[in-house]
Design a protein that fits this description.
A 5-stranded mixed sheet has the order 3-2-1-4-5, sandwiched between helices. It has 5 helices and 5 strands. The chain is of the alpha/beta class and 172 residues long.
């Protein structure tokens, strides 16, 4: 059994999702949203860091998965997302946790079966896959989807290790 923290970084809301994974089975442990506020960029980034560290200390994940940045039309939004993402990665790395990255398309493909699925579809599938009573908030659902994507990718890598006798990162 391995505990995975999924992070959906954002400069307004940073979603997190904690799952326990073993083989093809995943169990929802917790999920939520770190609400970001503050007057300065430094205040906002500090809140992200403190929120991620608090989640790590409370749930003790063994691995962290996070969404990669995609470039859209708005460069300013991409820069803010990159800053939020960097702080979340640093908070995880400072806690000596390995961090794995996945594109939005990889995450959606792993959870919904379509790389360009809508947020509502992700929420619906997360509810079903993790046997939740209700749909999680969009940012929390995305974070859980990122954690599930890593759990599925991880299992494939472990199977390949067994066949090829190789080691990959810290997955052993």
């Amino acid at each position: 059994m391995i505990r995975i923290l999924g992070i959906d970084p954002g400069s307004i809301n940073t979603g997190y999702g904690i799952i326990d994974s073993q083989g093809n089975h995943a169990k929802h442990i917790d999920s939520g949203v770190i609400k970001i506020s503050g007057d300065t960029l430094g205040d906002k980034l500090r809140m992200i860091h403190e929120g991620i560290v608090k989640v790590i200390h409370e749930y003790q994940p063994a691995e962290v998965s996070i969404e990669k940045i995609f470039m859209n039309r708005n460069a300013d939004s991409a820069i803010k997302l990159g800053q939020a993402r960097g702080v979340a990665i640093a908070a995880s790395a400072i806690q000596d946790l390995p961090v794995y990255e996945y594109t939005a398309n990889q995450v959606k493909q792993a959870t919904v079966g379509k790389g360009h699925a809508a947020k509502e579809q992700v929420q619906h599938m997360i509810k079903i896959l993790l046997c939740l009573d209700k749909k999680p908030k969009p940012d929390a659902a995305d974070a859980l989807a990122i954690a599930l994507c890593h759990a599925n990718s991880r299992e494939g890598l472990l199977r390949m290790q067994g066949v090829a006798g190789i080691r990959y990162g810290r997955l052993q």
